Amino acid sequence: MSIVTIQRKVLEKNDEIARRNRERFSQKGTFVINLVSSPGSGKTSVLERTLEYFEGKVRLAVIEGDVQTDLDAQRIARYHVPVVQIVTNGGCHLEAKLVEDALTNVDLRGVRLLVIENVGNLVCPSNYDLGEAMKVVVASTTEGDDKPLKYPGMFLHSSALIINKTDLLPYVSCSLEVLKGNALKINPALKVFEMSCTTKVGVPEWCRWLEEHLSG
Amino acid sequence: MSIVTIQRKVLEKNDEIARRNRERFSQKGTFVINLVSSPGSGKTSVLERTLEYFEGKVRLAVIEGDVQTDLDAQRIARYHVPVVQIVTNGGCHLEAKLVEDALTNVDLRGVRLLVIENVGNLVCPSNYDLGEAMKVVVASTTEGDDKPLKYPGMFLHSSALIINKTDLLPYVSCSLEVLKGNALKINPALKVFEMSCTTKVGVPEWCRWLEEHLSG
Q: Which residues in chain B are contacts of A1 at CB distance < 8 A?
């Protein structure tokens, strides 16, 4: 049995569980996003701004994925939403089974939006369906404008791109136009948002777009 | 045969080839560093500043690893050093075999320093020995000061840490002291450098330290 076969079987098994998760989300009327990016792009900050926007309006829940620590879950718990931390213990991405297990600790009744924050990794999580409605990739201006070309898989598998840290544009060597152009070259269907989690510019546009996807 | 066994066999095979690479480097008197970080931390910029420092003093060669594109090799070629690009085609890390294959295109005679720039990924490359003398991890201030705790493997397996983008400290939520403290908590033996590839602050300290490791 070759490694390629093993890998295919792992992905098939993952897809089967992802289908189960997706069915469950659909039954509960929960819209699910899988938030992906490099380490330090600002996934947790985007999530914090999103939680602030929806506070008192929409019921949310969060699943945090990290290689180690529950630092992100601690940050999110301050917003008084249900949050479960998955620690992968060295694992480089979340898998559908980890999410299924985490769901035993989340009451989805009335939850209209579930955000799964993946491990910070611009390569591996792109291959693993968790049962989400869509992947949203965060890329920060400080990472440079060539990342979509160098890590195309993640941009190809995402429905939306949040370009974060636009407040740092004056200080870094990154062209917003080149970054957007490169992302759309990889995936012309990407919905692109420009955002600064520090100044909050762009947060309402992103949240209103997200809101349109939530069911009554 | 379980997946864990497959994974162990992959790593054993990798270690065997890494030993072969290491022997070859030793015979040629070539010191080898494996440069690792998240995407966009500035590995290529650190490499560019390093090439500038050693220009005309020390013979260098470079192996570039990327998921896609030869953009980094193009950047490095401007410095008139031998450079080979490895494209992993979706692979999330370099392996010893890829480096061994790339070496057929590098004449190591007289090369005292070989820099292997790994795929941008703070998780997966930490497990793969390429035959290097040491791993050097780059972490940028824009990624935040909690990264060593959240991605401990890479900091544990590295000999040196370059904290890059210190020029952006006034604009980001990152404490240099906390970042250093977290890194040293994971690996007290880490040699830490503070650097800005934009202002070039810290470049000479890093390069002089590296120079001490090169053989006659």
A: 1
Q: Give me the long-range contacts of B142-145 (CB less than 8 A, separation at least 24).
A: B142/A40, B142/A140, B142/A142, B142/A165, B142/A168, B142/B168, B142/B172, B142/B174, B143/A39, B143/A40, B143/B38, B143/B41, B143/B174, B144/A40, B144/B172, B144/B173, B144/B174, B145/B174, B145/B175, B145/B176, B145/B178, B145/B179, B145/B182
Chain B residues whose C-beta sits inside 8 Å of any chain A C-beta:
1, 3, 6, 10, 38-40, 66-69, 71-72, 90, 92, 119-124, 140, 142-144, 146-147, 149-153, 165, 167-168, 171-173, 198
Please give the Cα distance from A183 to B52 (Å, whole number): 31
**pLDDT on residue B3:** 63
Q: Read off the pLDDT of residues B65-96 as tens digits, 9 standing for 90 and up.
A: 999 999 999 999 999 999 999 999 999 999 99
pLDDT at B7: 79
Please report, for the domain that includes residue B102, its CATH number.
Answer: 3.40.50.300
As a whole number, mean pLDDT of residues B41-60 equals 97
Residues of B in contact with A71 (CB under 8 A): 146, 149-150
Neighbours of A57 (CB within 10 A): 11
**Residue B182, in any domain of the structure:** yes
Residue B36 in any domain: the answer is yes
**What total number of domains does chain B contain?**
1
Is A147 a member of any domain? yes
Domain that holds residue A72: 12-211
Look at residue B182 and tell me whether its pLDDT is greater than 80. Answer: yes
The interface predicted TM-score of the complex, written ipTM, equals 0.93
Residue A43 lies in a domain: yes
